[in-house]
Amino acid sequence: MKKLLFLWLALLGFHPVWARPVFSITPILSGQSQLVQGQQGTAIYQVSNNSQFTLSNVNFYQLPTGVSAVTNAGYQYCSFPISLTSGSSCIIKVNMNSNQTASVQSGPVLCYTPSHPVYCSQPYQPDQLAMQTIAGPVPSTCTGNEANFNYELSQTFDSTTIDPTTINSWGPARNQLTLSPANPNLTGCTTTDITNTNAIQWMQTRVIDAESLWVGQKLSYCHHHVPDFATPALSYGTPRSQIGGSDGGYCSPQIDIMPGSPYYNQQARWNYSGNNSETIDNWINNNGMWYGVDCSDFTSFIYNFAFGIQFNSDTGFQAGQATDHSQDNLTPNGQTALKVLQPFSNSNPNSPAGVLVCTTGQTENELPECGGYGTNGYMSSFLNSDTSPTYSAVTDEMLTKLQPGDLIFLGFVSGDGNNTTSLVTHVITWTGQKIGYGSNDVNPSQIAPEEICPTDWQPQIGQWVIIDSHYQGPDYRMFTTCFYQHNIWGVRRVIGYMQ
Hints:
Elements: H1 2-11, E1 23-29, E2 34-36, E3 40-49, E4 55-60, E5 67-69, E6 82-84, E7 89-97, E8 103-104, E9 110-112, E10 120-121, E11 131-134, H2 150-154, H3 197-215, E12 234-235, E13 238-239, H4 280-286, H5 295-307, H6 315-319, E14 355-356, H7 396-399, E15 407-411, E16 424-434, E17 464-470, E18 473-478, E19 488-493
Parallel strand pairs: 2-11
Antiparallel strand pairs: 1-3, 3-7, 4-6, 4-9, 5-7, 8-11, 9-10, 12-13, 14-19, 15-16, 15-19, 16-17, 17-18
Helix pairs in contact: 3-5
């Protein structure tokens, strides 16, 4: 009887406390909890072989009705049937079709051949597929679909045809994504007409919703192009824990500095619960810190994800500095007639992100005199060609002129105190939201720590909120003066200017 009970528990993915499951199945992208009739949901998991053996012919076991596996879904995704050596991993992607089921409440279950059902596992219960179908139809207008990313999530984020011997150490390049063409048709919701207030506001809401979706996945800070790529255990002959902080494949080993959190002063994400898959072991060794994106890859991916907009993912190039590095010290207000930042272009893959924003909140396209060489026309802490920022240059009043989705680029002087460089090294997204408890506010509990201002990041009601990826990954953070406001290299507006 005990033997039969153990087999049954193993089949369901529940294991005695002394036994480790044969497979760890941990989420990278959580599935949607509700789908309107006609929508398709998506979930992404990493599968790891915890056994001491190579396991072949591994496959799904009795997928719930309405759930299907996605094949050829990306660079590190599993091939079916799955074959994994001991300690290795791959990724699975499943879709949930609300036209075929009223609910999904379990799985996915993976088994090592039907003749060995004891070798079966599924995610911890809180991470299992859980979806309810609600009455449709899906709203057909743009309004109501700002946070509808079902079609985008079903697409392949990255290239699946990369030669493993030549893969960039930042991981595979991202694919060009597209907006939903039907049910609903969102292709007409975007605009390059800045006078179209409704469309502009829709895009502003959507880009913040897109970032919020990915913030909720608790990714790490990694030098990757896409969020569904993990640094290999051995990358170009270097163990991933030994990759340099400026190299591709690097993922942040930062400890948690959130007082009162379960992993305070330990190497795990600040908002990991410590339960189920959110453990230090999973963060370091399995499914946590090796998935993530850096700051400019995050902003580039998000605009691609939300609108199908592509621009350069290098921080300086995204800001408008020349791709040959000849302008690494050029600031917006330091331009001359012979040295001008790169203009954006919808047809140039190395294009910067949109257009520069002036101190008035207008763009250089709306206010040509903003671009007067050597003037303080652009919103920047760098008033001219001097490489030392003026901390009072960007005022609180100027900040009220920013719009949700604006990208703020930060330039920092050299660490030797000689102010010899203003190289753009970081980019953040302006949310237009504040810390608080209102319907459009960001709750203080969602504000992440950051190590650069250890005494100045704690949430303060009424302070501005930005979203960026650094420290432990993409998060909501308070717009501090010591790190953000005092070091603004420039601001670029994408919404209304690129398609």
